[in-house]
Amino acid sequence: MRLRQKAGAEPRVPAQPAREAADREQWTSQVLRDDDALDLVTEDWDDLYRRCATATAFQAAPWLASWWRQYGRPGALVLVLVRRDGRLVGAAALRRRGPFGGLTNLGAGLVDFTDVLLDDACADRAAAELAAALPLRLPWHSLELREVHPEASVQRVWAHWRGRRHRFADSLCQYLPAVPMEELLKRLPGKTAQRSRVKLRRIAQAGILVHSATPEEVPATVGELLRLHFLQWQDRGVTPEHRSERFARHLTESTTALVATRRAAIHRFELDGEVVAVNLVLLCNPFGGLYLYGAHPELRERLDIAGLLFGAALDEVRAAEIPQLSLLRGQEPYKQRWRPDALPNQRLVLGPGRLAPWAAARALRVRARIAAVHLLRTRLPKLKEALARRLPG
Question: What DSSP string runs through 79-148?
Fold first, then answer.
């Protein structure tokens, strides 16, 4: 049987496939080198920060701009930006480390995590565009990134890089789940957990007042933090940079802006009307981090400092609904007591083309340093201890 078509009806034509949205999008990239470039893109940068799930406080515009004002070398700033239809979807803040085109991350030894920003909605394409936009063209160009988390956004850029690549282990970071303190104590052996409960009860009974500073109170609170930090380390050697005026200015400026936008909290602990400890906690999407603290030496004789600071930081992180508390870099004994999960950061080195002699040379230097540190740690522990006593901590 043949079906007759209704008079006047048009024959059906299969619908044409809709054009891919990506075909209609306009992707652009640019490299900014002016010293005020961070200030010029602050609004767009912070907007992208909120759309990047891996972003830490070290990638926030206030932190980067503050660090650059205090530590940056004029003419060395390099911002790599990627836009989709005019909206910023990828960004990397870099600096030239010398005259030959070597690039590295901002922050130097003050950052615990280095990363780029990628819009979660188009992260893979943005990473590919960012990799293509990196100013690594000549044989003597290279890019070295320190302290990269294994799940950082820049790992996507690494995956799209078509030139020479090297990956090394970097500093060890440690993490705890952001759970109630009683649940955290279950990670500890029975006797250790019981001793910790006793110490926590003493803290609760001591009558310490914990105050979270407002943005207006941050400058004075940072001053107290540094004063107490110097006191606690006076017999063991404080990190020299922590005594510098530029570090104080950077910490004050960046922390004020981060507290104002709920990306950090700074706690002041008061006992009998006196400030006895101050703790700076960074608040990021993936984790909250204990960045810096200061405690009066006499307080250590009365109370468990680690329990006091961890308790306040844990409360802050849980209130922000952040899943993890990071102990950041370092393997100090007070951190080990909590049986944290360890995860090493990574060190990435990129170079153009297959040869990339400068990147290869950089990688060789990194390997040599890693081997020397391993030798010092395993074969010459006494020399390491002697150097530790002579060098500031």
Answer: EEEEEETTEEEEEEEEEE-STT-EEEETTGGG-S-B--EE-GGGHHHHHHHHHHHSS--STT-EEEEEEE
Residue 132: C-alpha distances to residues 64, 89, 125 (Å): 23, 14, 11
For the stretch 205-233, pLDDT in tens is 999 999 999 999 999 999 999 999 999 88
Which structural domain, as residue segments, surrounds residue 40?
24-170+345-390
Same domain, 158 and 280: no
Q: What is d(CA 74, CA 60) in angstroms, rounded to the nearest whole number?
A: 21
With vertex at residue 112, the alpha carbon angle to CA 78 and CA 181, rounded to the nearest 5 degrees, is 145
Any alpha helices (H) in the chain, and if so which ranges? Answer: 21-24, 37-40, 42-49, 61-71, 123-133, 154-160, 181-184, 190-206, 218-233, 245-260, 297-300, 305-319, 333-336, 357-378, 381-390
Task: Give the CA distances from residue 161 to residues 65, 157, 277, 341, in Å, rounded to whole numbers and listed in that order.
Answer: 27, 6, 46, 30
Q: Is the pTM of this model over 0.90?
A: no
Asked whether residue 225 is assigned to any structural domain, the reply reads yes
Instruction: Give per-residue pLDDT as tens, 143-186.
Output: 999 999 999 999 999 999 999 899 989 999 999 999 999 999 99
- Evaluate the CA torsion angle 178, 184, 188, 191 in order and state its sign: positive
- Domain CATH code at residue 185: 3.40.630.30
